[in-house]
Each structure stands twice: as structure tokens, then as C-alpha cells.
Amino acid sequence: MLITYTCSWLYRIRPSVQHTPFTKYNGNKNLTSDWNSNHPNPNQLRWKPFSIPEQGKASVDFVDQGSLNVVTEFGRMHVEPNEICVIQPWLRSRGLRQPLRAAKPWSYRSQRPGKPSRFKTPTAWYEDRDVNGFLVVSKYQGCLFQASQNHSPFDVVAWHGNYVPYKYDLSKFNTVNTVSYDHCDPSIFTVLTCPSTKPGNCMSEFMGLITGKYEAKETGFQCGGASLHSMMTPHGPDVDCFEQASKAKLAPQRIGDGCMAPNQFTQMTKLISASLILNTLAIMLYLHAGDNVVMYLSGVHVRELLSMAVTPWAEHESQALDKEYYTCWQGLRKNFDPSWKP
């Protein structure tokens, strides 16, 4: 197995050790690392999209529209919708509030469909600026901490190495698929990967829709929403999708126009996959259970080794959980006929 060693050497105006001691950060009360604070829920779960607040009426963690200006120690990146931005752990960054969504720690897997030349690194930039009380927020062992310093952390005047943030335009990914029947293993769509030491595949599934309509559930599964189907919990296309597919003429047809659905599969390996069908762009993430993945698009689709825990906020306080989700399958009829012959 080929192992690539990644590191970067940064030349700073001031050393990064110049900061006050870290203390607990309480800026987000809904962020938790206590996965025992809520009882397990084996049901199929679906969340409706959050409404976009009026300008100036509410504070938000992530914005749903526009592009993202990312400032890192390595320089600046402008990230457009349908692009992913990867910022590795321990690298300092700042995003202005016009964001796309960003995926956090993955490394690139060399595959022809996603050419290395199409991965873009930051444009060189630094600032030599004194600041009183520049706040730095860091995640450590599942908790957030804060420290302050009297200078900008973006004072790296030069660097060399291969551990560097980057972005990738998913529309540049060259997808392939079967031309006969069924569908290929999702790994053929891999854009990024970070394999774990234990390969395998167990299915818990968290999925979100970015643009367009999702064929399997066109009415209830909306852009900005998400669904969670835990391991050993049955799920699948709803009544409308089954009826339409069963009665459709056996002829070529366009599917998934304008649809972009990110799929995150949590398992023993971790990947981001993308597929493009006409105007359809789907993203899949495969990740090791327990890793922290943030994809600031509309959600992610998880198939994982372990069952996922749902936070109290997501299940009880968000007011977005669709309590009628289970009804989309209740109209499926019995079609079995033991006397039928082809």
C-alpha cells in the first residue's frame, strides 16, 4: 500500500505560540460531544429545510446562498456553489458570510476522473496586522476552545509542502456508469478518499438534497432538507416513485434534471464521490464512523459502521423533523401473484 506523507512548513511574521491560554468556548450551545444525552431512535427520520431568515433578523451558523471567500494561513480562495473546499485539521481559516458549504478533513485519492490539476490551492496572500484580542476558536477532543492573540494569524509570508487547503469544482469530475443494467459500486465515483485501517461497508445513511428534485421522493425530500436511515432500518423509494417506475414505458428517458444530492456514506473508509447525469450532480461521502465531517451544502448521505446518534436539538428543538415521513411508504400495495408467468 502506498502511503503519502503530507506536511507543510510555514514562515510566519510572528510565532503561532503567541496567544493566551485556551478556555472553553460557549458560542454555540447546540454543539455537543455528549452522544448519551438523547435516546436512540431507530425510525426513518427526515428533516424539512430551514427557512432563510430575513436580512438582519437572525444570526445563523451557515448561509444557504452565494459564494464563499475563504481566508487561510496559505492564502485566499473564492469558492463557488458546486465546489467543495477542503481545509485540513489544525489549519486556521476564516470564511466571510456569503458561503457555499465546505467539507473538512479529507485527502486526495489519485483517480483519473478527478484530475489533480483541477484541484486548486489558495492564491498567495498574507497580512501583517496588529489586532487587540483576535479570537481564535479551535476544536479539541470534540469540544470547542477559544484563545486570543494580538496579531492576525494570517501572517504566513511563505510556505512549502503538500499539506495545504484546496477546492474542487465537482462539475469537472468525469463520471462513468454502466450502460447495461443495475448500477456500479459507488466507489467508481470517488473524488476524494481517506481510507481507514479497517475496510468494510455497513449501511447507515444520512442524505441531503442541494438542487433539483430527488427521483425516489420528489415531493417530501426538499432542497435544504435531510434524511437519516440508520443501519437495519428499512427505507427506499416512496409510493409515487414505485408506481411511476412500474408503469413507465421501457424507453430512454431523462432523469434527475437539475438535481444535486450529496450522499455521505459512513463506513470503514471515507470518500467523497460525485456523479453527473445530464444536469444532475450527486455527491457521496464515505467516512469512518466517529470522524467529524461538515459539508456546508444541504446535508450529507452517510453509510457507516456504527449507528448514528441524533442530538436533542435535531430531534426535539429544531422544529424541522418531519413526523409524517413514515406515511410515504404506507400506500405500497401487495403485488405478489404466485400464478404469474413471464
TrEMBL record:
Keywords: Dioxygenase, Iron, Metal-binding, Oxidoreductase
GO cellular-component term (any): cytoplasm
Pathway assigned in UniProt: Amino-acid degradation; L-phenylalanine degradation; acetoacetate and fumarate from L-phenylalanine: step 4/6
Superkingdom of the organism of origin: Eukaryota
Active site: 183 (proton acceptor)
Name of one Pfam family that matches: HgmA_C
Domain (Homogentisate 1,2-dioxygenase C-terminal): residue spans on this chain: 171-200, 201-261
A Gene Ontology molecular function term of the record: homogentisate 1,2-dioxygenase activity
Catalytic class of the enzyme: oxidoreductase
SUPFAM superfamilies in alphabetical order: RmlC-like cupins
Cofactor(s), names only, from the UniProt record: Fe cation
Key word Lipid metabolism present: no
Keyword Signal: no
Residue positions binding homogentisate: 214, 235
Domain Homogentisate 1,2-dioxygenase N-terminal: 7-64, 116-170
A Gene Ontology biological process term: tyrosine metabolic process
Enzyme Commission number(s): 1.13.11.5
Binding site for Fe cation: 205, 235
UniProt family annotation: Belongs to the homogentisate dioxygenase family.
Name of this protein: Homogentisate 1,2-dioxygenase
